[in-house]
From TrEMBL, chains A, B:
Protein name (record): 2-dehydro-3-deoxygalactonokinase
Pfam families cross-referenced by the UniProt entry: DGOK
Organism, scientific name: Gluconobacter cerevisiae
Amino acid sequence: MSGSSAGLPALLALDWGTSSLRAWLMTESGQILKEYRSKHGILNLPEGGFSAVLEDLLGLWRLPILPPAIACGMVGSANGWAEAPYLACPVSPDALATSLKMVQTGQGMLSIIPGVRDDGMVPDVMRGEETQILGVLALRPDLAEDVTIVLPGTHSKWAQIHQGRIVGFRTFMTGELYAVLTAHSILGRFSAPERPSDAESIMAFEDGVRTGASGDSVSSLLFSARSRVLAGRLSAAAVPDYLSGLLIGNEVYSGPRLNRASSQRTVLVGDDALCARYLRAFRLLGQPEPEVLGNTAPAGLIKIAHLAGLVPGGARSQPFSGVGA
Amino acid sequence: MSGSSAGLPALLALDWGTSSLRAWLMTESGQILKEYRSKHGILNLPEGGFSAVLEDLLGLWRLPILPPAIACGMVGSANGWAEAPYLACPVSPDALATSLKMVQTGQGMLSIIPGVRDDGMVPDVMRGEETQILGVLALRPDLAEDVTIVLPGTHSKWAQIHQGRIVGFRTFMTGELYAVLTAHSILGRFSAPERPSDAESIMAFEDGVRTGASGDSVSSLLFSARSRVLAGRLSAAAVPDYLSGLLIGNEVYSGPRLNRASSQRTVLVGDDALCARYLRAFRLLGQPEPEVLGNTAPAGLIKIAHLAGLVPGGARSQPFSGVGA
């Protein structure tokens, strides 16, 4: 059986965030047959809402019926298609797989993966990243015993994995602070419209990284993006690079100092260009260099689909359950 | 002579910032005869620009000619009426008084007070606050030997005074971060439009102060304004209070930890309501309670006018110089 079904579509896997949607059509084993990307995040849906997006996707890929389907991300938030509650740390892959929120889409059932919350002194939440984390553990089971997984982005996550479970995590608002400060604060207002030279850009980023890692409060350090320009120590055109360096440098400096982030090994997960910036910061600050993995969401989605028995295969292969057909 | 001129207008003193203008008509001794406030900051000038604002003020106060006039604040920036360069720390009152930038206004001469810069590892600038600081030292000469002066605001300053000079300072972007994050970030987007109860407001502010003073990076702590709401530990309506507490708490925690801020005595200078919030943070964090002074800009303006000989009186009384008549 498993040989004959190889190459056939077995799972529609969705990473449905606030501002974008990524979808993959996969075989039982997780081989990607088709890939799709759109701006139809949950806050930017076309007429017809969630259903219309799903219907368009089925049409585009000429699927007469909805195959088993699974989704992660903000689609499971209070503003999403249906609310999948947060599971409290520590969270295992099995716990996620047995807590899927089932939605009747009109075309069939969709399973939404819950988010994860950390109820520590400073409470925290993630939604979507838990699936990328499971993807890391599926791709690299050797890391599951003890690793820090860093997922840079609008709300960067530093997650601590111990014995295959997410035991705790913390968010840094690095990406959003960068966007909001360059667009709406005095720091962006006085940056120049022209692009800096490559040399200026690199120097500004590196100066930013070192400043961000000085141990002082970011609330104070940020103002140096203005005062350095006034002092002739930063070109106005390179202010965005300096800010990016400062916020990333502060995150890379602070992440390992959080209580639970004490692993020997660190993995970076995400977009190539952004991971490259983080790598430069790790190097500049003399921290052990993390291994970089690309987008691990597809690997996480098929892993949970396997564990939940939505498709056969994986460590806990189960007969096809017929959900959504 | 000094007796006969008491009560007569001798100085027009201006605190001319980015978004507002405050003006005082003073006697030789600094007694305030008239006070004026408008929204005509340097980025919000009416038709006719700086001159028109000054002319209107003379008309309003029925002054046939411009008396000796002095100004501090962003009016002396590159975007101001004329650029008064920054003086490098350490800066004495005399250095400020002998570095005034003279502007021919059309109605007579205006003297603009320079800003101050700190060329330390993390460079910093102030413009306007140096005058408030001189006002503190004029009103309270007993503090001049060694004091930390905290000036809360959009860009809060923590200035270190030693032997009557400004020896160093650091800016915290507390007010601007609060404004930008509540207006443009996810933290503000999910706050509720209704007002919280007084009890909710106080509790949220205090929780924010304690969180902001936890020693972790603000970039990470800020996200708790979102996750606490999701965890049911903060009402959406009280998010602005929590954010205010978090940013102020972080500033009050971090300020004394900056290298130069090591005085035994601390003074808070500024708006009553804002100083009250800072006082609550100092108390909550168990820090020695600072003395609160109101707006010390008028005292600073007359002090520098005295030192510069624009009006007679003060420690270095000089004959009336006739500038601007």
